Amino acid sequence: MAINTPGRIAYVNARLLDPASGLDAMGGLLTEGEHIVHFAPGLFADGAPVGAQVVDCDGACLAPGLVDMRTQLREPGQEHKESFKSAGRAAVAGGITSMVGLPNTNPVIDDEAAVEFVARRARLIGLAKVFTYAAATKGLEGRELAEIGLLREAGALAFTDGVKAIADAQVMRRLLSYAASHDLLVIQHPEEPSLASGVMNASEMSTRLGLRGIPREAEIILLERDMRLVAMTRGRYHAAHVSTAEGVDIIRKAKAAGLRVTCDTAPFYFALNELEVGDYRTFAKLSPPLRSEADRQAIVAGLADGTIDVVASDHCPQDQDTKRLPFNLAEFGGIGLETLLAVTLKLTQSGPLSLLQALDLVTRRPADLLGLEAGRLRTGAPADLVIFDPEAPWKVVADTMRSKSKNSPFDGHLVQGKVIRTVVDGRTVFPETAR
């Protein structure tokens, strides 16, 4: 699509929020072309600059656009479930201006051409910015390391086998050693495969429903092993979608020991628990599985004390053919792009975080972790912005969501916090009528 260069735009009557600096004040912000050129408390109180287009925020929050560091975009190979275009529409409707895709596509993103394909397609579509991870091992098979140096040069932000754990300890040791020598980030799906053949959390509930359980130890054991490997190699390690109380504690202790360890979780794991499975509800079949209420509370505590660095959507689109099946046969995963902001704000409404602290989890922190020029209000930075009303309530209706797939675990839930406008490189990309 043709992308027009925007002119000067003055955002007035805005509640400016910048987690990086702690700014929370009424004021204004000026963009010119693709960049922020000025912002300050009280700015434009006496009127906007002559010749600038004016966007009246009417007291709504103006913050850096969200950075989502864990998504499955399905293109190439499964465009019937999701595409860059449909995911882009869903992302900007949720206030996300940058997102990073996993490499488990078809073909796998394990060569330079595949990395470059992602960048090229995202530029053509012109919605949210799309970055990619590359496979840590060739074909995601967990045996032979991919061409990590070449993939990094091509633009891969980090290295992971996506939804597969790197189970072989020697392979993980070699990967972390290489990553340490080149200051690269390794992202692990922390689930011991030999313990993870079930379909929901192993508990009294799984027994009652007659479903094979995935014990919490699947996460715990792999994290414990990996922390020892990180200590051996001094590599940079990131644990994805931590879901257990013990998992949080392992990361907490590793950080205290000075290891180069970070982690994220997804809204599913701090807003829901295993009771969502209810009467075999496949939209609540996730990987890792929804855990106990005690685990959920431990995830919230980990977010509050800074052990958990980032909240990511863990967007995993599945179509009706793979979700509307008996629970044992249905695929894992839930969509989460459009609900990322609103569900994260639950941490401020009934939880221990301030608005700035909650936003930090989905803006500055993921951007800094991945080395992206995003996630903060700064003069000269790309004008990637979201305007939202943190008090506006709405009901999640999966069938109306912009993703091609409708498998939202939050379907039917009431949430609070609605995106009004999303801006990427100075251009309004949501709502569609304002482009």
Automatic annotation (TrEMBL):
InterPro entries reported in the protein's UniProt record: Amidohydro_3, DHOase, DHOase/Allantoinase_Hydrolase, DHOase_cat, Metal-dep_hydrolase_composite, Metal_Hydrolase
Q: Which GO terms describe its cellular component?
A: cytoplasm
| Pfam families listed in its UniProt record | Amidohydro_3, DHOase
The UniProt record lists the keyword NAD:
no
Q: SUPFAM superfamilies given for it?
A: Composite domain of metallo-dependent hydrolases, Metallo-dependent hydrolases
Q: Which residues form the Amidohydrolase domain?
A: 347-430
Recorded GO terms, molecular function?
A: allantoinase activity; dihydroorotase activity; metal ion binding
Q: Which UniProt keywords apply?
A: Hydrolase, Pyrimidine biosynthesis, Zinc
Which biological process terms from the Gene Ontology are attached to this UniProt entry? Answer: purine nucleobase catabolic process; pyrimidine nucleotide biosynthetic process
Start and end residues of each Dihydroorotase catalytic domain: 61-246
Q: Does the keyword Membrane apply?
A: no
- Judging by the UniProt lineage, the source's domain of life is Bacteria
PANTHER family (alphabetical): ALLANTOINASE (PTHR43668:SF2)
Protein known as: Amidohydrolase family protein
Which species is listed as the source? Roseospira navarrensis
